[in-house]
Write a structure and sequence with these properties.
- With 281 residues, the protein is an alpha/beta fold.
- Helices cover 47% and strands 14% of the residues.
- The chain folds into two domains: 178 residues, 3-Layer(aba) Sandwich (Rossmann fold), CATH 3.40.50; 85 residues, N-(1-d-carboxylethyl)-l-norvaline Dehydrogenase, domain 2 (Orthogonal Bundle).
- It has an eight-stranded mixed sheet, with helices on both faces.
- Strand 7, helix 6 and strand 8 form a beta-alpha-beta unit.
- The radius of gyration is 19 Å and the shape is globular.
């Protein structure tokens, strides 16, 4: 693979573009708004500057990688890509629309991947005429730091597609771990109920937010507490994943905490809005 398309210049999309460019791939970063692309590139540049300061990469590598990235607000710019990774919002209708468009634009042997954290890859692939070339590539946040790519096969995903994604993951200096197509896959099926229960503990007055996080960090050796992690992920994203788990698995243990729903409704979404369970302003 030589050319990768990334849809979405937000937190996950710009991270995927970042590591792809450092891996020597030509990157086409697409979003619906030129301002989003400008902000995404600024984040990439800032994060690469930090890597240079920490001597993780050289300034020459930084300059070369930034030159590998081109941006566009036109999906047709992806027509010659070898793989396209969709990193749009966690909404089934939006993803379905994107994959229908990609199927008509991209060359026939292009792999179409989704960075979805919970939505069925089989369902996403059904919007195309190439379900055997549709796969999940769930990167972890922050993408330039975290080593894992959770690789999800849809019901019709071919061995060839899975093998190509494994090879790409190695090229990106990531570790790909495969799982099957069930709601939330593995990472979020285990993580989100923990975060949800921490929010219930806060709502019910079991402990204050900082105490909940300290207990999990000091007692369970977690690098950050569940409420800090929820703020990092985005409370709207956490809610969307829990709603998928609750709807698709039908088990009340996945019922989103009312406090989480209230915070999302108020626009209190975590780090990206400056305030969540903690204040970041």
């Amino acid at each position: 693979m030589h050319r990768i398309g990334v849809i979405g210049a937000g937190t996950m999309g710009n991270g995927i573009a970042h590591i792809s460019a450092l891996s020597g791939l030509d990157v086409i970063l697409v979003d619906i708004n030129a301002e989003f692309l400008k902000k995404g590139l600024a984040v990439i540049s800032k994060n690469m500057d930090r890597q240079v300061q920490k001597k993780k990469i050289s300034n020459t590598e930084r300059v070369s990688a930034l030159e590998q990235i081109v941006t566009s607000i036109d999906m047709n710019a992806l027509r010659d890509c070898d793989i396209v990774v969709e990193a749009a919002t966690e909404n089934p209708k939006i993803k379905a629309s994107i994959f229908r468009q990609l199927d008509g634009i991209c060359k026939s042997d292009c792999i179409l991947a989704s960075n979805t954290s919970s939505i069925s890859i089989t369902e996403i692939g059904s919007n195309t005429n190439r379900p055997e070339r549709v796969i999940g590539m769930h990167f972890m946040n922050p993408v330039p730091v975290m080593k894992l790519i959770e690789v999800i096969r849809g019901h019709l995903t071919s061995d060839e597609t899975a093998s190509a994604v494994q090879d790409l993951s190695i090229k990106m200096n990531k570790i790909a771990v495969e799982c099957n197509d069930y709601p939330g896959f593995v990472a979020n099926r285990i993580l989100m109920p923990m975060i949800n229960e921490a929010i219930f503990c806060l709502m019910e007055g079991v402990a204050e937010a900082q105490a909940i996080d300290d207990i999990m960090k000091l007692g369970m050796a977690h690098p950050m507490g569940p409420l800090t992690l929820a703020d990092l992920i985005g409370l709207d994203v956490c809610l969307a994943i829990l709603e998928v788990l609750h709807r698709e698995l039908g088990d009340s243990k996945y019922r989103p905490c009312p406090l989480l729903k209230k915070m999302v409704a108020s626009g209190t979404l975590g780090r990206k809005t400056g305030h969540g369970f903690f204040n970041y302003k």
